[in-house]
Structures are given as structure tokens and as C-alpha cells.
Fold this protein.
Amino acid sequence: MTQIEQFNYDNKIVRNFGIATVIWGVVGMLVGLWAAIQLYEPAANLGNQFTTFGRIRPLHTNAVIFAFVGNAIFMGVYYSLQRLLKARMFSDMLSKIHFWGWQLIIVAAAITLPLGMTSSHEYAELEWPIDIAITLIWVVFGWNMFGTILRRREKHLYVAIWFYIATFVTVAVLHIVNSFQLPISLFKSYYWYAGVQDALVQWWYGHNAVAFFLTTPFLGLMYYYLPKAANRPVYSYKLSILHFWTLIFIYIWAGPHHLLYTSLPDWAQSLGTVFSIMLIAPSWGGMINGLLTVRGAWDKVREDPILKFFVVGITAYGMATLEGPLLSLRNVNALAHYTDWIVGHVHVGALGWNGLLTFAILYWLAPKIYNTSLFSKKLANTHFWLATLGIIFYAVPMYWSGWEQGQMWKEFGVDGRLVYPEFIKTTINILPLHIMRSIGGTIYLIGVFLMVYNLWKTMKSGKLVANESAEAPALVKENPKGEYWHRVIERKPTMLLILSLIVILIGGMVEMMPTFLVKSNVPTIAAVQPYTPLELEGRDLYIREGCVNCHSQMIRPFRSETERYGDYSKAGEFVYDHPFLWGSKRTGPDLAREGGSKLKKSDGWHYSHLVDPTSMTDQSIMPPYPWLAEQDLNTSMTASKINAMRTLGVPYKEGFENQAVDALNKQAEEIAARLKDEGIRDNDGLEISSKKEIIAIIAYLQRLGTDISKTETATN
Amino acid sequence: MFKQFLHGAEGMDQYLIFSMIVFMVFFAGVVAYLFLMKKEDAEELSQIPLNESTTLNDNTHENV
């Protein structure tokens, strides 16, 4: 006789993650809107270094990815996991540590990023102490999840849980591999890898953060909440299994599509393209499985805002995952890379897929755990329409802008010259589209505010069922031949974990091994020398200010680019770059050869431009950096930086760290002298002091691209 | 594309082919697994989310 057991589900933790989702969602989107406005109205940074574009852009991306979507994942997982396993979460204490730990990490990010403490790897900007905290909290999450799995009363693991498990292992691996840094101080570190290798690791990470943070957990949520909301099982369970395995297998290989036409070895680029194209199959398999789940219930879809959010969200997933592979085709990528097209693409995914699914789940969950009904279905419907409209008003201008930008950068006149040699012309042309995009974002955000109100009223009208009572038969031995089910139970999740780990490791290894093992993949260039101490400090300021968010340093081998910027970039030029600063977006021009002959400007030009870009480039939308001219350069860490770089393999001479500051001062004085000769004065009419930060950043800019013009490329 | 990579890229075709073979083998494995899976089993599994074990009055969604 099987014994029926009584137990409780923990709804409070679900509620807490839900509230955090909403709060951080609003914050993250507001910061996004603010950043968007700065791209046509730089003064919107309030003249303040902490809120200028280069620093708040990573704040926006981190907030929406890890705070909004992250909390949404945990909310969705904690609710569904308990039900799917018929068990309360393994430990309330772990749940609490997980919740508060994660919120603390977010707060730490919100403080450090505006302060300019950043590693510069996109979506992995947080400095090493926070990276460690993330690792610990992630382990807590996994521990709590596996503890629950082992104590379950349902013998089978529903496919949603497979997605959760794969998410857990893969994110752990990605985060650890992409966090290899050598700390210099509490809030400064250098990446272990340099140049091409660093780029490969970063985009392997970056791409798979999309895959395993924004996609797989949400697919798991889709496989649970969509059947619940539609009150019918998933269309095909077998398809969901095929979807799962092929998706996690293929995704991990596709990272190099972020680096097409760069100095990444060709074979790695091809690998990325091939697997990206293959990704269409599992992605669409998943989308079709989702959409067909509501087949025959379309009348319900018309009625129910929750199902509407699901259907459009899943469709957005389908669109984004068709577009992604298209963007991996070399000729499409050649046009779209570095442009607003990519921004449009990611927002179809983020606003459409992650956003709409999160809203659907919130609308479904809130009444459930408050044992009431939704305050207003009408408001939810309005939210749905605003969200959809917002996405359209966001995405269409961005596609348009990306297309125009890409075309203008490439356009040659009959005389064989670039039609728009001045980059700023291509920028000004797209500003109206940027204004429209921020209107789209505003519409979307208004919808979110409606949701906040609706959910608030819903919660008010009910009472949180903090501990929801449930009952289920205990798991007992089922096989009379002596095979105890608990053995199978213990084996299966572990097996799933190990299998998913193997599957993702295969792709990761095949992709990375050769670049790390085969030396010829990164031909060294004899003329490339380590940065001088002043240039190194300048480079760190470039990182602190987030210039990389607007400027690439990677010239692709197209005539339109070599004509504009100079010789295309070679892998060997980056061997001392810890981290690489190739960038992914050209809001401003490429700077890889800024100090080289073609683009070379005087120190005075850079000084004036940095303090007020419009003084040198009419109508420039680059933010002014007056504080660089006011703040003194901190050289207290210069020696340790040189030491650290040497540890990482940069050939500074033994003992050089002791002369570093002297060398730095000497070079700074030379630059200050040149500024004086050019007649540059500060705001008070005084000569420019060689101690200022701006001197270092000028030194760095003037260094860029000068090595290669010295000699020919050496193969090996 | 890049001259300096021609040297490093030699034999790298095999890499692509190897990758595809690995995938094919893996894919065949999953398909075989699904083929052997009983239809009733799959149906039973797909019902898991719908089997509520809660004793709370569940009338919320209908009122949405």
C-alpha cells in the first residue's frame, strides 16, 4: 500500500523572486531607455561620469539579463520544480541564501559598473570578487535544485527539468572559463587570455550566455507553463526530447559567428557558421512544439492575455532564432556586424521572447500563489498590445538603421572613393531612427508599468499562500525483482547532468583547443611591442570609461574598411592585449589604427575632442569626457600592473616595474609639452598638467595601430 | 582569407568534418532513443505538469 504523504510547497520564495523580477525589470529597462536617449542627446548623461553611456550600457545589459531575466528564471524554476517533483524545495535556508545572495550581487553590479569597475568582457563585466560571489550563489542554486530532485515523489524527470539541469551545468562552466583573471587589486584584474584567444573565449561565453541563460531555462519554463496555461499537454513530448539534446549540442559550437571576418582563424569561423545554420532546426522544432501545444485552442488565445503573451513570445523566439543563423552567413554578417541590426536582433529576443514569456508567467503565477484571480484582464490585454507595439517600434527602426549604416559605410562613388569618408555623416543620418527606437522602448515600458499596477492590485486582493499544502504518494519500490526505484532516481538526474556536461564540453573543446595548442594560429609580428606604462594606464582608462561600447578595434579585410581605417587587423597585433578590445558595435568609428598614418591626429586634437567632441567634429554624439582632464592619473598600481602583465606573458624586462612610473612621467611630460606647443589650455586658461588622466588616454590612442605600420607582417 | 592563416588552416577541414561526424553520431543516438521510446510512455510523461497534487482550491486560472 503506497503511503500518501502531506507536504507544503514554498510559495514565498517564488513570490520574492517574482517581486525582484519586476523591480529589476523596471530598473534595467529604464537604464536602457536612458542609454538609448544618450545616443542622440549625449547631454542626457547629466554631465556625470557615473551615468555616461560607456558605463551605463553594461549596467543596462547586466540588469536585464542577470537581474530581470535571472530572477524570472529562479521564480519560474522554484515554482515549477516543486510541482514537477511533488516536493518542497530541498532547503528553505538555501533558497533564502540564493535569493538574497543574488540580489546582493545585482546591487554590487549596480554600484561597481557606474564606478567604471569593469573587466570589459561583454555580459561578463563584473570584477573578480563579484565573479566569485556569482559562482558561490550558483552552487547554492544547484545544490538546492539537486537536493529537491533527489527527494522527489515523482519518479520521472519532466523535460523542463532537463533544461534546468543543462542550464545549471553549462552556465557554471561558461562562467568559470570566462572568469580566468589575474587580480591586481580588489577591483581590477587582467584576463588570463590575450587577443584572439581572449576574443574566442569571450564570444564562446557571450553566445552561450544567450543560449544557456536566455534560452534553455526559458524553454524549460515554456514546457511547464504553456501546458499549464493552455491546460493541455505539450504537443509532442518526443519532439521536446529531440529539441533538448540537439539544441544543447549545437548551441555551444556557434560562438565564433560573433567573430566573422576578424583575426580569428578561418576554420573556427567556418565552424561557427556551420553550426549556427544547423541551429535553426532545433530552435524551430521547439517553437513549433510550443505553438502546436495551443492548437485547437485558438479561441482561448483570443480570450486569454496570458496565452497571447506566450504565442507572441514564442513567435519572437522563432524569429530571433531564424535571424541569428542568417546573421551568421558571411555576406549578411559583413553588412550587419557592428551595426544597429544586431541591436534589433537581440531585442526581438530579449523583449519578445524573454520579456513576453516572463510577463505571461507573472500573470499566471501571481493569482495562483495569492489564491485569487487577476485584478484586470483588460489591463493585461492592454499590456500585451503595448508590448507588441513597443517591440515593433523598437525593432523596425533598428533594422532600418542597421541597414542604412551598413550601406553607407560601404558605399563607393564613381571616383572609387568612399562616399561618406566622414563617419559622423553616417551617424547623423540614423538619429531619427534612434529617436523612434526610444519611443518604442517607452511604449514597452508603459506596458510594464501597467503590469506592475495590475499585479499589485492582484496581490492586494488575495493573500499569499506561503506554504501551499499538497499530497502525493511516496516513491516506493516498484519493481518486485528487487530494483529499487530510488536507485534509478538517484542515477538519472546525475546521468543527465553528466551527459549534458559531456555534450557541451565536446563543442567547447573542439572549438578552443586548436587556438590554444597550435601556435601557428596566432602568428607573431616582430614589430608588435608591449604597451608603455602610460599607454597601459591609458588603456585601462579606455576600459573604465567603456569606450569599447561604441568603438571597435578590429578592421575587417574589406576595401571599404581598409580605405576608411587602414590595413586590416592581424591576429599578431593583439598578443599583448589582456583583455582584447575588439568591440561589437560601431557607434563611433573603428580605432584600431587611430594613431597610424591614415587617421593620425595631433595630441591637441584628441585633447579638445575628448573634453568636448563637438568642438572637433560638428554634431558629434560622442559623450564629452571633461573629467579626464580634471582627474589626476593614479599611478599607485602601475608597477603591479607591469608585474601582472609579465606574469601573463608580456615580455617586460625583469625589474622594469621599478622604472615604470618614471617612464610614465617622462612620456606624459612629452605629451604635455606638445599640448603646450599646440596652444592647448584648460578651462582656467592654464597649461595642461602632465599628471592628468587625459594624457594617458591620448598616449594610448596615439599608440593604436602604430606597430604594424613599422614593418611588414611576419608569418611566425 | 588571411594569408598568414593558410599555414595554420591546413588540415583544418578535417576539423569541420570531424565535428559533423560527431554530431551525426550523437543525433543518430537521440533519434534511436526516441524511436525505442513507447508512445504511451511519452504521453504519460507529457501529463506530468497537469497532475496537480496541491490540495488548494484551484479555481484561479478560470477566472483570469
About this structure: Chain A touches chain B through 73 residues (CB under 8 Å). The domain at 297-476 of chain A is CATH 1.20.210.10 (Cytochrome C Oxidase; Chain A). Confidence is low (pLDDT under 50) at residues 483-487, 711-716 of chain A. The first helix of chain A runs from residue 12 to 38.
